[in-house]
Automatic annotation (TrEMBL):
Residues 15-470 form the Major facilitator superfamily (MFS) profile domain. The lineage of its organism: Bacteria, Bacillati, Actinomycetota, Actinomycetes, Glycomycetales. It is found in: Cell membrane. Keywords: Cell membrane, Membrane, Transmembrane, Transmembrane helix, Transport. The chain crosses the membrane at residues 12-28, 48-68, 80-98, 110-131, 143-162, 168-190, 202-222, 228-250, 271-292, 304-325, 337-355, 361-388, 409-426, 446-466. This is Drug resistance transporter, EmrB/QacA subfamily. It comes from the Bacteria. The keyword Chloroplast does not apply. SUPFAM superfamilies: MFS general substrate transporter. One of its GO terms (molecular function) is transmembrane transporter activity. InterPro entries: EmrB-like, MFS, MFS_dom, MFS_trans_sf. Pfam families: MFS_1 (PF07690). Its main location: membrane.
């Protein structure tokens, strides 16, 4: 390989690393705050019912704006929309860290959610266009899959270290140097792309419909734990969200320049990959949430200990997604890997559903923390590959935004459903005379069992909906055919 081509290849891999680092930042932030919640509550005098809004204030704009943000990248410039979102996210993180009251923190978290959505919406679309050859593209998807999952698992570890070692402010301030470094490297390494133009897809009315509908969906779901599923508020918000989203799809079918071209969803693989991801993430949100609670509230782990207990998860994901998965993806194809990986996730969740009150980490938790990330490590890159398959270059941003949207909405729906069932089981055990530890263990066990059921449904979808793509020839050279995403 000539020195010029070698230099270009290195620049492309540096671009992949920058995009993965941005993904780690965004995903990390969604979990790092969980460990700091008790400290935030004590310092800013939050009530138990209001504390949840430190999470919801971020999740609602994040989940609602992903689709619109992805399309904006297609229309304007994926690079500069990404950098603008990153700047907003970093500035809002600083604001969160300096917040000295409840209102200030909640407003800052809302702005942070806006920045997170704009930053992350088009990331997957940029990653898959950096390389055209199957071999380096599979490796890039593996790295991005690790960034997505490893960032979430690492958030618990980092959150425990920062909260216990420094203060809760640092769970937000950590984003400042990371954001500056990633932003500077992105400006240097990512191609100065031009979008297809505002007139090619500026469906303002459709954008209002889908953004409002998605925000209402997330808002309705995150409030079910306090209001209940049958409350008039929940039903009213749900009906309004369904009406808005139905109106959006009617609009997309008729609009000359739709925000979400419905041709994207005509692909069985694209539609199936999004549905499978929604079900899988619905299970994994509960896994992350209730495993931490089990360790802290039942086994009496300190925040730092609970965080360190999660270390096997990102380590296994890193090894599998960046070394094993790319080779398997090239050899067997994405559908086969998905059908093999999902049962491992379901088995790990089933193991967790059987944890006792006096559980032992090495006997009852560690096996699942090895089996599940192995399954995730081979499944996620395959889902990403299928989700971006058969998609035109001008639609890659909105398709990436759609994939992220299904992740967030699927997680919100899953956690809402599981938390309702968990709360009911806890109350039932207490009413039957069980002590608090037993009630919590019973409730969390049910939550893990429901997660396993979600994954089982995802496996059935994969079996019946997905179609195996013809395996591309793994080119012997890592040189890309076209300069797609970096200069």
């Amino acid at each position: 390989m000539s020195p010029e081509k070698l230099s270009e290849l290195r620049r492309r891999w540096l671009a992949v690393i920058v995009l993965c680092a941005a993904q780690v930042m965004i995903i990390l932030d969604q979990n790092i705050v969980n460990v700091a919640l008790p400290a935030i509550r004590e310092d800013l005098d939050f009530s138990a019912s209001n504390l949840v809004w430190t999470i919801n204030a971020y999740v609602i704009p994040f989940g609602g704006l992903l689709l619109l943000a992805g399309r904006l990248g297609d229309l304007l410039s994926r690079k500069y929309v990404f950098v603008a979102g990153l700047a907003l996210f970093t500035a809002a993180s600083a604001w969160c860290g300096f917040a000295d009251g409840q209102t200030s923190l909640l407003v800052a978290r809302f702005v942070q959610g806006l920045g997170g959505a704009v930053t992350s919406a088009g990331l997957l679309g940029m990653v898959v266009t950096i390389f055209s050859d199957p071999k380096p593209q599979a490796k890039a998807l593996g790295a991005f899959g690790f960034a997505s999952a490893g960032g979430g698992a690492a958030g618990t570890v980092v959150g425990g270290v920062l909260t216990e070692g420094l203060s809760w402010h640092w769970v937000f301030w950590i984003n400042i140097p990371l954001g500056i470094i990633v932003g500077a490297l992105a400006l240097r390494l990512l191609r100065n792309d031009r979008g297809i133009g505002w007139r090619a897809g500026a469906d303002v009315f459709g954008a209002v419909l889908v953004t409002s509908g998605l925000m209402l969906v997330v808002y309705a779901l995150v409030g079910t734990e306090s209001r209940g599923w049958a409350s008039p508020v929940t039903i009213g918000l749900g009906a309004a969200a369904v009406a808005l989203l139905a109106g959006f799809f009617v609009r997309q079918a008729k609009a000359a320049n739709p925000l979400l071209p419905l041709r994207i969803l005509r692909s069985r693989n694209v539609a199936g990959a999004n549905l499978i991801q929604a079900l899988m993430v619905a299970a994994l949100f509960g896994f992350m949430f209730y495993t931490v609670l089990y360790m802290q509230e039942v086994l009496s782990y300190r925040p730092l200990s609970a965080g360190l207990a999660f270390l096997p998860v990102p380590i296994v994901i890193a090894v599998v997604s960046m070394t094993v998965a790319p080779k398997l993806l090239l050899r067997f194809g994405p559908r086969t890997l998905i059908l093999a990986g999902l049962p491992l996730l379901a088995f790990g969740l089933w193991l967790l559903s059987r944890v006792p009150v006096d559980g032992d980490y090495y006997l009852h938790l560690l096996p699942a923390m090895v089996i599940m990330p192995f399954g995730f490590g081979i499944t996620m890159p395959s889902l990403m590959s299928l989700a971006m398959s058969e998609v035109a270059a001008e639609d890659s941003g909105v398709t990436s935004g759609l994939f992220n949207t299904t992740q967030q909405v699927g997680g919100a729906i899953g956690l809402a459903v599981v938390s309702t069932a968990v709360a009911a089981r806890i109350d039932s055990t207490l009413a039957d005379g069980g002590d608090k530890a037993q009630a919590l263990t019973d409730g969390y066990g049910l939550g893990f069992g429901l997660g396993a059921a979600f994954v089982a449904v995802a496996w059935l979808v994969a079996l019946t909906v997905l179609r195996q793509r013809a395996k591309p020839e793994a080119a012997g050279s890592d040189e890309p055919a076209v300069a797609a995403a970096v200069s």
